[in-house]
Known about the structure:
Number of strands of chain B: 12
Number of strands of chain A: 12
CATH class of the largest domain in chain A: Alpha Beta
Largest interface: A-B, 54 and 52 residues
CATH architecture of the largest domain in chain A: 3-Layer(aba) Sandwich
Oligomer: heterodimer
Number of domains of chain A: 2
Order of helices and strands of chain A: EEEHEEHEHHHHHEHEHEEHHHEE
Helix content of chain A: 25-40%
Strand order of the largest sheet of chain B: 6-7-8-3-9-10-12-11
Radius of gyration of chain A: 21 Å
Largest sheet of chain B: 8 strands, mixed
Strand content of chain A: 15-25%
Number of helices of chain A: 12
Radius of gyration of chain B: 21 Å
Shape of chain B: globular
Strand order of the largest sheet of chain A: 6-7-8-3-9-10-12-11
Largest sheet of chain A: 8 strands, mixed
Shape of chain A: globular
Structural class of chain B: alpha/beta
CATH topology of the largest domain in chain A: Rossmann fold
Strand content of chain B: 15-25%
Amino acid sequence: MTDDRHLLLEIDELKTHYHTPQGIVKAVEGASLTVREGQAVGIVGESGCGKSVMLRSILRIVPKPGQIASGKIRFRRKTGEMVDLTGMDANGRPIRDIRGGEIAMIFQEPMSSLSPVHTIGDQIMEAIQLHKKVPAAQARKMAIDILAKVAMPRPEQIIDQYPYEISGGMRQRAMIAMALSCEPRLLIADEPTTALDVTTQAQILALMRKLQAEFGMAILFVTHDLGVVAQMTEYVVVMYMGQVVEAASVDDIFFAPKHPYTHALLHSIPRLGQRTTGQRLEPIRGTVPDPFARPSGCPFHTRCNFNDGRRCISEVPVLREVGPNHQARCHYAETLALAGVGAPTEQVPA
Amino acid sequence: MQPPIATADPILAIRDLKKHYGGKKHWTGAVSKAIRAVDGVTFTIYEGETFGLVGESGCGKTTLGRCIARALDPTDGEIIYSPEDGRDIDLATLSPRQLKPYRQDVQMIFQDPISSLNPRMTLLDIIGEPMVVNGLARGKEVARRVGELLERVGLRAEYMVRYPHAFSGGQRQRIGIARALALNPRVIVCDEPVSALDVSVQAQILNLLQDLQAEKNLTYLFIAHDLGVVEYLCDRVAVMYVGQVVELAETSDLFARPLHPYTEALMSAVPPANPRAASQPRLLEGDLANAANLPPGCHFHPRCGYCVERCRTEEPELREFSPGRFVRCHRAEELRLDGVAELAEAGA
């Protein structure tokens, strides 16, 4: 499938490092990915794999002592011009226009990312007035409209309430409303439903899908829930220890994974409706290595079932094309013949 | 995966258990409205089984688990425990002194492996203290047993001199499990033991729990909101909604054909981990009912898509629909609700 949509965001060999007294933590160590206009891209990985740091690098909000060591983040602005975000002053005018105005972010924990001492309305209106020159009364009207768009019940009342007065699902709606208030072209969603109940999660996911179609924005969707990935994204990037280890269409990731880590993730999760008598889960051995002591060779070799003991521990694999629109960072990607979840032939294509 | 329940003996029988907060009369005469966190729960757990408890946050599943472990004092109802000597004891009404011999039989594993371990105690103290307090071991014997337990849960014995901060989330959960095992319990209340863990570590802990159960004939009350985990691990499942059990069945029956509209909604809300199966959640309107101000009739009726006039006025009872299957819905017989299989097919 060729994709003729415009490139919206291109991350190229990004390295974001933390200089700590104990040494350098290479949180992101050469990650690359692309997002096209209107595309929903999922990022999957365990905690500590660098996915949050990578997202914060895009917006240039990496907390100190972290800093971008090298690499490029190219973003197509509304005007059509491609700009390199890494070259911008993190406090300068251009990035502040992009932040919130063209790239918006929603966070995992709506309670701690909303201000507890400002009303919902104040927080949404602040975002609107930062990016659009409108009087307060009109900003308020726009805030009510956007709250109604995210299916917030009683928006005229909620706008004057504080975050503690409303439920978790409603808070997440308020966050989404704030993010959408300036019609961003890229929405970064960092585990937006992890803190919510499944029933609320289903509401929020349905809402995000509807809004994506309506606004035509691209979404970078970070999650560890493979169900959410399957339902919300078209392209998936799997990260491990600061690197992209596999990138492919969502179908290929689920049905024809090429990297042992993707394979292991798929098979370590109990999936609804897959209960089979006596079958055990296959956990991934050990834990994510200490960031101060990156393993030699392939960073995943310490936990990999296909470690050959020679090339894997000495030679660093590169991310390379292993199929059409499918990249993997493994020496043996072509020869392993890894099994996906359920053969795709059993399913009738939707 | 476990032996059929019919051959096992009951180990805990919960009878009309209630835990209300507030509702007390103030000296001014004002009566605050009681929050009915757990409101008349009845079920039986059999020896050696894994009994799942699912529901949204705020439905009372954690409160119920804590009442059963007597970390909280229930307001009303019975918790009939059957110790190995064959007597039946109501744990709900025992005084702390009378309760002490049974405390070690019912232990807990908590959700948050960080806040549930004292940061100022070494593993030796954390796991060894319950043994000393209950007179199971003393002196060098404590260290030997702690070492054994650590090795059993997949840690090294020499770690016992370290403090919890030196361990990762999965390792801390293993420490929590070792502490629960320290007193050779018969029942372990597992309150969301894997929800704070990464997926790869989650599978390790689930497998460990299964192995320990087979080895020591443990009974688990497994509280979780992840239906995939519950389906994988549990023999029977109770679904809770604002303080009440709305459905109880064997796991395969429940997931194949739910009888309560809330169970159906919960299952359909889980996004299938298959990009070709389109998710068609039966979206619930609104939020969980307020436990201090419950709607009349069936508590679920304001959010239920199958609600009829009777549901608005008459509160349904939890009744036995077929042997071993319980449901709290007026319309259980007439409704044909979709289980997990249908949902997957419908979307394909």
